[in-house]
Structures are given as C-alpha cells and as structure tokens.
Amino acid sequence: MRFVDRIQEKERLTKILNMDRPTFTAIYGRRRLGKSTLIKRVITDNDIYYLADESESSAQRILLSKVIAQKFAGFDKVTYPDWETLFRSINYRTEEKFTLVLDELPYMVKQSPELPSVLQKLLDEKQLKYNLVVCGSSQNMMYGLILDESSPLYGRADVVMKFTPIKLPYLQEALNLTPEQAIEEYSVWGGVPRYWELRENHNSFDEAIWTEALSVNGTLYDEPVKLFKDDVQDIVKTATIMSFVGVGANRMSEIASRSNEPATNLSRPIKKLIDLGFLGKDIPFDADEEKSKKTLYKIADPFVDFHYRFVVPMRSFIELGRKAPIEMELQQHLGEHTSKWWEIICRDAVTGNVIDGTLYGVAKRWWGTVLDKEKKPHQIELDVVAESLDKKKILIGECKWTSGENAAALENELRWKASMLPFAKGKEVVPVIFAKNATNQTDTAIVITPEGIMDLMK
After folding, report:
1. What is the DSSP letter of 167?
2. With contact defined as beta carbons under 8 Å apart, do 132 and 48 qualify?
3. pLDDT band, very low/low/confident/very high, at 286 (cuts 50, 70, 90)
C-alpha cells in the first residue's frame, strides 16, 4: 500500500532533523498508526534506527551497540556498563550530525528507570552532536516521560508529535475506493494504516473481515487486548467495560449494573479509556459537558467498535468454526454498524466547516422531550445539530445509510422537529439530509452524499 497522509508530520520531522543544531524529538501514539514507518521514510542511510524490545538493560545496550557499529566500526567491541557511557561514546565518535532513533523507548525505560534522567543530563549539557528521536506506543508512558511536569525530560523536547488515526478520505485514496465503499470500510478498519494494509491483501471487503477479524488465526482477532496491554494494568476490567459498551450499555449506571460494581469504581478506568481514545462521551448539543446527566459512552474507534459488536459476542462460534450464525449476525446488523459510523462521520464533516456558505461550530447529536403547539410532549432525536459561528443559523441534519430515501419527506420531518426545539428559536433553521443516495430531491434542504462528505473532510 502506498504511503498516504502524514504530510504535516513528515514536513515537521524533516524540518526539525535538518536544523543547524542537534535536536530532541518525541513521537507517540497507539500502535499501528505508522509512527515507525514515517520515521524510516524521513531518516537517511547516515542515521541510526534502533527498535527496542523487552530484554533487560545490558542486553539492550549490546543490541544497540551492534546497530551503531554499522555506522561506527568496532562500536560493539566494547562493553558499556551503563547508558550514559554508551551515549557519551556515540558523541565521542560523532564528527558530522546524524539522527539516532530510539523506537519503543518505554521498553528501555521499563528495564532502566534511570534512563530519562541520563537523557536529561545529556540534553541539559547541550553537548550532544547528534539528533535524538524517541518514539513509543505506550501513550501513558510516553506522556509521562515527556509531558508530565515531574518527569526529568519535561520541557526538553524541541518537538512533541502525537499520532492519531488518519482521516477517511485517505482510506479512499489508499485502497482506491468509491466514496460509498470508503465509508463502509472505514466503519470497520477506521483510520489505522496497518489495518488498511491487511485489507489490501484480500480480494474483497468480506474476505478481509472473515480472514483478519473473524478467524482465530486472524491478525486482528485479539487486537484490542494487544492495544490495551500498552496502557492499562487491569486488562480484564477494561475488556469488560468495553464489552458492555459495545453491546449497548451506554450509561454509567448500565455499565455499573452489568459489571456488578458501584459507578464510583468505574469512573477512573472509563476516564482512562477516554484519554486513550478508546471511549468517547456522547452529550446532547445544548447540554453542559461537565454537568450533563444525559452523558452516553460510546466506543470511539471503528475497528474496536466492530470487534466488541461482532467478534466478542460471536467468539464461541468463531472458535468452533461455525460460520452460519456469524453470517446471520453480520447480515442483520453490519448495516446498522455502518449507519452509526456514517452519523459520526457526518458530524465530524460539519464541525468547523463551511456548509452552503456558512461556517459552523461543533456538531453533536441531540435527544430529548419537546412540546408541540398544543403542549403535547414528543421524544425526538436529531443526528446532527450545529450552530453557525455568527449564532444566526442552526443546522439540523438527518443521516440515512439506506437507498431511495425521500428527501422531501425527511426535510418536512426535520422542520417539524426544529419548530419545537428551544435552542432553535430566533435562528434560521438549515435542514441538511446526509444520504447514501436520495431519489426525491428538494430545493429547500441541503442534501449531502458520501462524495460531498469526502470533499468536506479533505
């Protein structure tokens, strides 16, 4: 698969490594996001790249010295008793600036807790003759090593880069898909380039799902647990919370009830999962984010969501090789899964974007009870709500991932709902229909298809 996106990251890393003075760069983010791939594309044959493992510190120094010996002949003929001696020896041999990359730094620190202090000492002396790049997939450890005020390395990095999943349009580009296909595949693979590479190895979307995710021998069969191991201590509790959220327990009270634990015991692990990007909060458009009692929790990554919606509940059938019940589950509910992520994609596309000449703020869902003109209550939901930055307009949207939708009927329903919304009073209502396709168009509502979403997200 050809390399896509990471344009800004590549430019930034190239710029910092080409400065006149030696620099210190820290890169972090969850596994599979292409951190190492980008680094390898930026560094040259003159640089040194070392991928750490979980072996003990003396073995790590031996392995690193062998890599360094490819640049400095005989470097591995000496035994280095500690890290400071090794790094100073590199400095002694350096005549022209180059880059030393320490990938998976957390493995090294786990075996050598003194390493951050050693690096701090070397950096503070400002005597290093080479660039130093550290990288890691443990978001907790990397954040603690670089961005925690109590860490020896706090404030030392010239650049700190956090990698996040890649945007939807790059999936379309990487796999040469139609906009509709890209959205369907994104709802499973998300923005993780390694998953895209695995998908590319197969002749079809279905084949890739069955081979990589729904097989005991699949590369992604236990992927979420592997991701959690980098950053959480209680894997069982984490997986349990994710399992409950994945099958529809979205309120704290529901999660606590199914876990047979008080909600107070779950606040910290749930916050941790939110910080790591695995869970997210769903709060109504007009609610206070800190005080809202309507908060719903959702899985924030498409693949992890797919895993806990289809893989975990079907694990017994997968282990036994019983394909029929899994096929039935996919046939009945994969469309719902795609539809859910279509809504999320649409909200992301609207947020901070210009729609029909108007710039909008953050788009959210809304749900609640409203009163009509006769004071009759109605429970309604809106897939997309966003206010224009000038406060004059309110965009309300309906998202449909089915064929042949009647745009005129959907517009009428949106306007009826808007007439009862307290936060829409005094504002111009802009109805928007986000549709897989729409057969009956309307002149008074905006209709945005997958192709339009791609344009908005570029």
Report:
1. P
2. no
3. confident
Query: With contact defined as beta carbons under 8 Å apart, do 353 and 368 qualify?
Result: no
Beta strands in 156-240 (DSSP E): 159-162
Question: Tens digits of per-residue pLDDT, 185-214?
Answer: 999 999 999 999 999 999 999 999 999 999
Tokens standing for residue 407: 């745009």
What is the C-alpha to C-alpha distance for residues 310 and 330, in angstroms, rounded to an integer?
A: 8
Identify the weakest region by mean pLDDT among 145-154, 410-419, 437-446: 437-446
What 8-state DSSP symbol labels residue 311? I
- Looking at domain 7-162, its CATH superfamily turns out to be P-loop containing nucleotide triphosphate hydrolases (3.40.50.300)
Identity (one letter) of the amino acid at 350? V
| Across 98-127, average pLDDT | 95
pTM: 0.92
Phi-psi region of 26 (alpha: psi -120 to 50; beta: other; left: phi over 0): beta
Cα gap 230→427, rounded to integer Å: 48
- Domains of the chain by residue range: 7-162, 170-347, 351-457
Q: What is the CATH number of domain 170-347?
A: 1.10.10.10
CA nearest 171: which of 225, 139, 208? 208
Q: What is the mean pLDDT of residues 269-278?
A: 93
The yes-or-no verdict on residue 348 having pLDDT over 70 is: yes
Taking the C-alpha atoms of residue 322 and residue 311, their distance in angstroms, rounded to an integer, is 13
CA distance 241 to 392: 41
- Answer for the pair 133, 25: CB distance below 8 angstroms, yes or no: yes
The answer to whether residues 253 and 239 touch, using CB atoms and an 8 Å cutoff, is: no
C-alpha torsion sign, points 255, 261, 266, 267: positive
pLDDT digits (tens, 9 = 90+) for 423-445: 999 999 999 999 998 666 677 88
Q: How many whole angstroms separate alpha carbon 220 and alpha carbon 31?
A: 12
Fold agreement (7-162, 170-347): no
Cα distances (Å, whole numbers) of residue 389 to 343, 361, 382 = 22, 6, 20
